[in-house]
């Protein structure tokens, strides 16, 4: 199972998990799978022959000692490339096939020989970070149902908001606007010099009222 597939499974099973936490769980899952495969290959299923308890760990007798190491294991996993302590060659990852075919040793035996912890990944921190960044760049979470459902909900919300705005604008345009009426004047007719108010005829001309 690829890293992307494992990450998708983790995200589907844990909807509230952040991407960084999911990546950490992915690393742990890959380590666990690698260890399980190695145990199965060695015939170590974690139980004794009678099935009543754990089996004793057996050494394969690879014959290597620390005197055979070509470089310091502490420095071997520094920088851009990981250096194999048994041959001095550099790799992105010191793989199980390389150790088996070139040196007849398993990754577990190699870690023990070099003094690494059982969970130590045989790669540099720089390369591990590059892989994590590449995995983030591929954005596999966008292929999960959780992501697709979220995008569908957000798209529906945006569409509903757009329709509501359109309806408001349409209503404003369809409502006729009333023309404001001129206010009535309370001013009284002006009187002429004689004190007699002027009277307007039908044409609007002013005449004296006699």
From TrEMBL:
Domain of life, per lineage = Bacteria
One family name in Pfam for this protein: ROS_MUCR
Region of interest (Disordered), residue spans:
41-62, 134-210
UniProt lists compositionally biased (Basic and acidic residues) regions at 146-157, 170-187, 197-210
One Gene Ontology term of the molecular function aspect: DNA binding
Task: Give GO terms for biological process.
Answer: regulation of DNA-templated transcription
Q: Which family does it belong to?
A: Belongs to the ros/MucR family.
Identify this protein by name: MucR family transcriptional regulator
Q: What is the native source organism of this protein? A: Solidesulfovibrio magneticus (strain ATCC 700980 / DSM 13731 / RS-1) (Desulfovibrio magneticus)
């Amino acid at each position: 199972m690829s890293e992307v597939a494992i990450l998708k499974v983790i995200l589907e099973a844990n909807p509230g998990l952040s991407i960084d936490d999911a990546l950490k769980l992915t690393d742990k899952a890959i380590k666990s799978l690698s260890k399980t495969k190695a145990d199965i290959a060695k015939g170590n299923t974690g139980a004794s022959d009678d099935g009543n308890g754990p089996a004793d760990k057996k050494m394969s007798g690879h014959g290597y000692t620390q005197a055979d190491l070509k470089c310091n294991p502490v420095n071997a996993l520094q920088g851009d490339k990981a250096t194999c302590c048994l041959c001095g060659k550099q790799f992105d990852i010191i793989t199980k096939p390389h150790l088996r075919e070139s040196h007849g040793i398993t990754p577990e035996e190699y870690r023990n020989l070099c003094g690494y912890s059982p969970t130590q990944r045989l790669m540099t921190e720089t390369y591990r970070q590059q892989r994590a960044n590449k995995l983030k760049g591929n954005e596999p979470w966008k292929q999960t149902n959780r992501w697709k459902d979220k995008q569908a909900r957000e798209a529906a919300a945006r569409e509903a908001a757009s329709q509501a705005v359109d309806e408001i604008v349409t209503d404003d345009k369809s409502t006729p606007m009333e023309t404001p009426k001129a206010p009535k004047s309370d001013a009284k007719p002006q009187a002429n010099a004689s004190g007699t108010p002027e009277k307007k005829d039908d044409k609007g001309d002013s005449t004296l009222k006699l």
